[in-house]
Design goal:
Elements lengths: L1 E5 L6 H11 L3 H8 L8 E9 L2 E9 L9 H9 L5 H22 L14 H16 L5 E3 L5 E2 L1 E4 L2 E4 L3 H9 L13 E2 L3 H10 L2 E2 L5 E10 L10 E9 L1 E2 L2 E13 L7 H10 L4 E8 L5 E9 L4 H11 L6 E9 L2 E8 L2 E8 L2 E4 L1 H11 L3 H15 L10
Parallel strand pairs: 1-4, 3-10, 4-9
Antiparallel strand pairs: 1-11, 2-3, 5-8, 6-7, 10-11, 12-13, 13-15, 13-16, 14-15, 17-18, 18-19
Helix pairs in contact: 1-5, 1-7, 2-5, 3-4, 4-5, 4-6, 4-7, 6-7, 10-11
Amino acid sequence: MDIYLDLSAGIAGDMFVAACIDLGADQQALVQALQTLQLPPWQMQLQETTRGGLRGKHLRFDYPPEHHHRHLSSLFKIIEQSQLSPAVQRRAQRIFTLLAQAEAHVHGVGIEQVHFHEVGAVDAILDICAAAWCLEHLDIEKCYASPLAVGSGRVGCAHGTMAVPVPAVAYMLQQHDIPLRPVEGMDEGELATPTGVAILAHLAPHYGANPLSRFDRQGAGLGSRECVGRANRLTLFAMQQRAAQGLVQEAVTVLVAHIDDMDPQWQGPLFDAVLQAGGLDLSITPTMMKKGRMGARLELLCHPPQSQALAQLLLNQTTTLGVRQESAQRWVLPREVVHYATPWGALRVKWAAGVPRLEHDDLLSIAQQQDWGLPMAQWQLMQWLAEHHPQHALSSSL
């Protein structure tokens, strides 16, 4: 399932879990899973209520007061000794690691020297483990999100009164390139908590508007405060991909650079570097530039989270002094790569809409080993596919 997060009112761990339950996560199964954590007695309070006139669920964990500061290793031990599934345990540990890295940075200590105060409390442990459980059991694959509202002013914590966003949150925002929503007068107070931002960083969403899918259903998690002028409400939307004649639309980023002073021999290694770094495609087109000079237009296609790293790659691997970024959408056919063991060697075939496309490197390798030309190699392999795998409808044009 793909999800979209409306972060216009910020994010907290309890709000995220409440939104997941409202979306359809099994509350009873979640409580049973969390009860296997070796923690002091606690109770989950889930209430249907409103904030700013809008409905949603508010979550609270009740537990006896404690003054126990925990290290990352002790948190990992609590998780590992539970009966949470290995996948849920890994997610929870990754979220805690993100928090530990942020705290270690702001305090100038090693990650194992970090003393968790608020984040080491029972409710924070339950929030993070519950979030990890919900992500697995809702089978969340891709995540999209709006820019994040963090709030303003000051907030009290174990280290005293601090400016919003608190240092650990500010570090995670910077490290994970989380875009912020402009602060408004109604955003007074802390809207994005360390636990909530760590969950968001773990999700690593595509940020911005989401025009690519339709919303199927939604869940809303409510914060504890009733805020003036807005609903203190995190909304989580389950999405369905738009499809037209078997097509799927997805968001992509286009990186563009114009160059007139680069050695053409550098273009081959550039293609290899871009694809190895996760770029979807790269094209280089001749163009006329200023003063009548012949140049080249480089156009690189990538998934949005990879855009910054690939822009840096272009700056490092070419002579350009700048890279332009554009957001776009593309229609693609669902495809599947199948590995075959043919009589002549291993062959990868990309199937899309019932049509096979032979992997060129494998086709070339088989042609060279058999001393065939490429047309003969393709004909032989297509015949073999038709005979041994007739369940795929081969195109008559191939």
